[in-house]
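[job 0412] stage=fold_complex status=start
inputs:
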Amino acid sequence: MSGYSVSVALTGSGGAGAMTAGQILLDAASKAGFYGLMTRSMGPQIRGGEAAALLRISTKPISSLDDHYDLLVAFDWGNIARFAAELPLAANSLVLTDPEQGEVPEPIAVFGARAAELPMKSIASGIPGGRVNMVGLGAAAVLIGLPLDSILSVLTAQLGRKGEEVLAAATAALRAGAEAAAILPSVTKLGTAPKDGVVRWNISGNEAAGLGALKGGIKFVAAYPITPGTEVLEWLAPALDKTGGALVQAEDELASINMVIGGSFAGIPSATATSGPGLALMTESLGLAVASETPLVVVDVMRGGPSTGIPTKSEQSDLNIAVYGLHGDAPHLVVAPNSISDCLYATQWAVYLAEALQTPAIVLSDQAMGQARALIGKPAESPYVAKRLVAEANIENYKRYALTASGISPMAIPGTPGNNYVADGLEHNERGTPSSQASDHQSQLDKRAHKLDAFDYGDLWADIEGDAEIAVVTWGSATGPVQEALLRAKAKGINAKMISLRLILPIQPAKMAAALKGVKKVLVVEQTHSEQFHKFLRAHYDLPKDVAVISQPGPLPIRPAEIVNRLAAWK
Amino acid sequence: MSGYSVSVALTGSGGAGAMTAGQILLDAASKAGFYGLMTRSMGPQIRGGEAAALLRISTKPISSLDDHYDLLVAFDWGNIARFAAELPLAANSLVLTDPEQGEVPEPIAVFGARAAELPMKSIASGIPGGRVNMVGLGAAAVLIGLPLDSILSVLTAQLGRKGEEVLAAATAALRAGAEAAAILPSVTKLGTAPKDGVVRWNISGNEAAGLGALKGGIKFVAAYPITPGTEVLEWLAPALDKTGGALVQAEDELASINMVIGGSFAGIPSATATSGPGLALMTESLGLAVASETPLVVVDVMRGGPSTGIPTKSEQSDLNIAVYGLHGDAPHLVVAPNSISDCLYATQWAVYLAEALQTPAIVLSDQAMGQARALIGKPAESPYVAKRLVAEANIENYKRYALTASGISPMAIPGTPGNNYVADGLEHNERGTPSSQASDHQSQLDKRAHKLDAFDYGDLWADIEGDAEIAVVTWGSATGPVQEALLRAKAKGINAKMISLRLILPIQPAKMAAALKGVKKVLVVEQTHSEQFHKFLRAHYDLPKDVAVISQPGPLPIRPAEIVNRLAAWK
Amino acid sequence: MSEVAAFLAHAIALEAEAAERYDELADAMAVHNNEAVAELFRKLAHFSRLHHAEVKEHAKDMVLPQLKPWEYQWQTAEGPEAAPVERTHYLMTPYHCIHLALQNEKRGHQYYADISYKTNDPEVKRLAKEFADEEAEHVVMLEKWAANIKAPEPDWDMDLDPPVVSD
Amino acid sequence: MTVQTPLTHQDFKSDVKPIWCPGCGDFSVLSAVTKALAELGRPREDIAFISGIGCSSRIPAYTKVYGFHGVHGRALAIAAGVKLARPDLTVLAAGGDGDGLSIGGNHFMHACRRNVDMTYIVMDNQVYGMTKGQASPTTAPDWCNSKLTPEGTGISPVEPVRLALAAGANFIARGFAGNPNEVARLILEGINHPGFSLIHVLSPCVTYRPEQRDWKQAVHASDATPAQLIAEAMHRLASDDGFTTGVLFAGNRQAFMPPRRNLATIADLERKFAS
Amino acid sequence: MTVQTPLTHQDFKSDVKPIWCPGCGDFSVLSAVTKALAELGRPREDIAFISGIGCSSRIPAYTKVYGFHGVHGRALAIAAGVKLARPDLTVLAAGGDGDGLSIGGNHFMHACRRNVDMTYIVMDNQVYGMTKGQASPTTAPDWCNSKLTPEGTGISPVEPVRLALAAGANFIARGFAGNPNEVARLILEGINHPGFSLIHVLSPCVTYRPEQRDWKQAVHASDATPAQLIAEAMHRLASDDGFTTGVLFAGNRQAFMPPRRNLATIADLERKFAS
Ligand SMILES: Cc1ncc(C[n+]2csc(CCOP(=O)(O)OP(=O)(O)O)c2C)c(N)n1
Ligand SMILES: Cc1ncc(C[n+]2csc(CCOP(=O)(O)OP(=O)(O)O)c2C)c(N)n1
Ligand code: SF4
Ligand code: SF4
Ligand SMILES: [Mg+2]
Ligand SMILES: [Mg+2]
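[job 0412] stage=fold_complex status=done
writing structure:
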């Protein structure tokens, strides 16, 4: 479709191994020097449910899934209706089915794609230990032009320790599939892999966020598992253990956020990760962190809401609670990564900001980035590491909440002689003693707002690309499709600027005004039902009169084509 | 100051009885046929702390405190600095002090008001059982021209059961104070009480909210005490007990909101009351109420934030969390009373709306209304009572979340044969079975948003007064000062329209557009630090270009003069 | 108790506890705007500290045992002269204050009198007797003081205003 | 009038197919619940079945009574609300060891204490099944198969029945999913016993704790009659190995239920405001 | 180098004046804490004192150590965070019966179980003081002086020490505010005992529970040596009247503390992503 990438979906249920095949395909693409992206979609069953591995492999770095899949390999059709909407096909796409599994079912047939049959199951059963997913994988590799060698080397690395026999069976099945594919109709093929000498990383957004936290200086994590935030923790648990930190599983999110507050109060950069329901439970104590000026980071990997919602699907609908969900006037930081690699950068930056500003930072990632794996170039080093303004020992008449020019007051860390103080969530005077006086309230409210407003966030507040009279304003995982759409639009002669906000809070009115200078029309792109981002922009920024909005809830990702169409219609 | 009212502050500490004196003064004013308002301000000590009773007595219904106090009766000066800012005096105000207590202290002296001495303590000690607050009360009554008889009749009613002696002592002290006042400088006097034949009620906003809930049909309350919401519950506990309902104290707010959800699911209109920190703990489960379409009412009596903040002082800073504090896209109702009597109406309406729309409603009251007492005309009956669309028995293939034209689906109440279903916070299909399909998510999100948007809220969405090119847009307890300011401005030839929003959510764009038709300038008045209401308006409504904002945090109330000045400056 | 050092260590602690308690009560009264009683408590604290200094003087050349607070051998839970916290009230009057102090001094007297009666150590006996006599003087003094203070009205603790809520 | 044939346990099964892993102990608990309800003999509509979030918490949807699948950890609070608002209903609650004892621990403790008449089934598999196998409060300290605690939790597990006793539960029983008919009996006894009843069911998670298939060998029926005094129950539970099944405690505290009275009208209450 | 004179308990008092009602038992607990800290002999800066919200929870501000006055019910979670992040600090937590057992009940239970080395002082006055006298989980069912439960709660109180034992606390003691020196000893023993220590202090509220002034008559010291086995402690507590003071249980479970290791650098971890 895009000319530089091929999109493949592998589906199957009950242990068909679609996910494993997808994973191997992605690894192989990496070995072969390609870039790529893989997401997944699964049924509600704990085990053996229907699953789809959704891949895009590319000769250039990519930021988004494509509009369609070029190839759908269906090991079977179990419950396909449940996620057919997530498997858009074009007319020249190819559906590869197993004749044993019957007709292409209606929800897939409607796309009108070409279909071809491959008796994967019977081929597999002809090979001792042969598995259907390896047959399909071999066929897929040949169809999209991925060198079989790369797959073989992944198999060797992964199955090697399972013994010769297993490896031999897999290899045989793979080859059988590849051979059988020779007579199949052709599919868009991958170009030549770039020889750019860039080291590839194969990483998920959740792993990247964990790594970002670690690189930012986080040493203590307390958390309660929740989909899709858990993998951030699963990566961090051994990583912290190996590098002198610790992760503790708490009894609930109320405990985890307060443990994190305790750890940070004690001087150790601390964080947690969760998802919407957990974030909701944390808001009271996030207010405490604001009032007591305790730095910390909460990574919220957003999922479909409201309530328990759709735990395994993506949405950007925690924007409101992240920005406005604290009671009282509680200024804090909200940072949103806008790509899988940015999950690393943005989280690391958030740690730095939280520590520098002695305030809680919410990192708004989402399931689409968090649980997707990307092949990316090894991320460059970022200079942002936790550095707190701490008080030296024995300050006379130490005032924890002293009114300073920057609004940031030196924080005494337990263990520092002479500066003992009591952190408080009650309104207080400069020393920290509770006070209900109007003057103390005003000056501490001013202080807490000012320290955030006055800080210099540099260029990182947003990613801005291009320059034009039309701007697409977006954030988070909606950015990828926007980037791709703008490339395509450009090819069609439509110029647009992209403004992707990384720093959601505090707002940056001057920078936004500069970015919007000369902009006549704005297209807002987001993945919510109620236009949360659009409303947020209206509230805090001056937008031009002409504003259009693409706002769609999960679980379907935003497709680049939709954005291109909207821009084209505007023209 | 205003010509129809007199404002009096009574201050004292450690059992001086300032609050009691204020209460008696208010009751007496009521007996004498006046209208009035009383708020209070108190130190942090549980007992014996410094306290101020802040009254305004008037010949017309009033909605706000005045800019200044005409008379300050100080039984002593204990810790006066702590709330001097809440006791503004004008040059012709009178400070009545006890010479035994020393000089008028600096924070009060700065106002430059007149001062006079009355040896209240020594007069009291000359009377067996005589109390200083009665002496001061007697003097105050004479000074402001409130008939002593009215006080005597209140005393008789209240002290009667404490025995002859107590009553005699109080009466003697009162008379002694009144006599001594004869030689004191004069103070603005009350006019003649209106003979309007209107039955007066003496009621606090919190009591009114409790009554509103009861009249709306609430039969079950589960709650956890928190200042300043507790009094709503304290009124409701015996009231429910007497009228066939029940109130249960829960272990925490997580339990209380879920008990309320359970009660409502079981078919009984249910509610709770809390304040900011408690509301924060409830948001996850409010999302459950949204997703499961369970009606309920949460009365949030706002206090100073963030975090534990200033529990005993007022602020409007829970607007954000009430509107946006739920994770995911979770449309719900937010209703804000804008006067003490409206605490009754708005809460009753909220019960009606929640039940009609099968959705949670947050009632945003605040400490200033909740803990203030007003003399008002007996409120008229309101027609709004809970009426849920319930499913008849034995509906074939009953679908709890059926997609209907109104978006409201008949709800089967346990006990109804044949319609058993499982309410769910997971995204679901029409039957209620969990579903992660894009189409179910979209249609249920649409449904939940649509039922709120399509409902006819009539005129109650806002109180609109006057018609002019300038509009003051406000809400909640900021409305009182605005109303008074507009009256005063009118007297000065400045016309302005008031739009006070009662229905905060869902937004009413068409109605607001109509209300703002012809309006060139908007002044937003609110009591927050970060202009929460202004930002909310910007996000959801189209305001004219010319917008000014008076946004000030608690604990100081917004004074009418400030608004008048701003309007005058604009002219 | 037979050791002079132990005896003096107790005497020092007794006065220290009394003084600290009076200080604490003075502060509490001040916070509750009961200045008159606060001042009295401060005065009482002052006297206790004077006695504390006196006893210390007695012990100045001695090595005293370092007793932990819970190792003191009083018959009461706290030092005999420490005012019981629960016997105070924010509206208490000087009358109550003096009577409270009187009770404390009486317990102090009783404490020393007991020791002087029971001990076998002549030096301890002598000192205990001396201290007991001194406490008796305090009792007499406070009794005089008390006699000059008018009893409060029966409803001295009536506060018509309700308690305050916070947090 | 038509004669009602009594409902069988099949009549209490819904047509929603469980998402549970084949082999999961929760299937047996489902069967036990439906059997208990059939024996109880109340109409389906008079039963409310409340749960939180977790594999086990999916159970209400698989029965044919009124149900609420709430949020994680709050099942007992919703259940209490249902019963307090509608004393006429029979209220059951169910959920996992994580739902009930980790995030829901406070409601567990207070439900025991409050003693509202309802029956709570904890389906204990000593793991968080739904979220892919983390340790729960009942997990042994040396279980190392969770990525969050790869070296084991190092924390002693709580014993739900002991905690319930200390918190004041009025009826405490333990069952094993491998013996669904006994579990059915325990549930029915719990329903019929006034106040709060805990039915602790050992319900294996074959996916994350396959070793629990061996529980069959470990469980043994209690040979004592149920303790009726707390002290006695405490004494017995002090030496319990966690695998004794049967009724462990049957107390005689009165169930909590605010009275419903009609002493005044709203108008009566309003008169107090008139001055 | 100057010779440090040891700190006295007065050195652990701050200059912030308590807002407590004169007569409140919390004054004595404050005095006990400062005495225990003086005897402990660690520098002020090495102590962290954490609380929630309530009259009692105001206590850290009145001491001269590092403190955190958090939100209602979460003191133990903050305290655990402090200790887990900084094992070198001595961590104390304190709060009321409402803070610790009502809203904070879950953290209470899990703190007992988790056994992080810290000492928790529950200042129990069987009432919510700060919010004007509502019933708490330790309030007798027939106490009718709360406007929220004018007929009494009708709910059996929990006994904190019993609950702590069932939940797994490693050291359990009870003290009475009227005997601050003994409370000081209990606190110090609690600090010195590894793992989680509960010091349950009966601390009268003279404002809402004036009858508690009579507790002086009711308390009595335990005459037994502390139980070291859970079963034994359970047995004793089964017949406890709630007024026995002293160390009731001193277990020997190891305190929970994740190890701190240095097995890899971040760069080592990053290498795993390179394919
Ligand atoms: C507030 C919140 N936190 C976390 C989760 C994620 N979560 C869902 S189920 C579960 C634990 C389930 O364990 P258990 O209750 O033992 O049930 P099981 O699956 O083992 O039957 C968790 C942590 C959630 N849904 N909500
Ligand atoms: C989330 C939340 N809910 C409720 C409150 C109100 N509140 C403050 S203190 C308190 C109870 C205090 O009781 P306890 O812990 O026993 O302390 P005490 O005052 O008796 O010492 C309550 C309910 C609050 N601050 N925060
Ligand atoms: S994961 Fe475990 S608990 Fe969940 S359904 Fe499967 S076997 Fe049952
Ligand atoms: S209200 Fe009770 S607990 Fe609070 S300070 Fe006063 S006496 Fe103490
Ligand atoms: Mg489980
Ligand atoms: Mg208490």
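[job 0412] summary: Chain D has a mean pLDDT of 96.
[job 0412] exit 0
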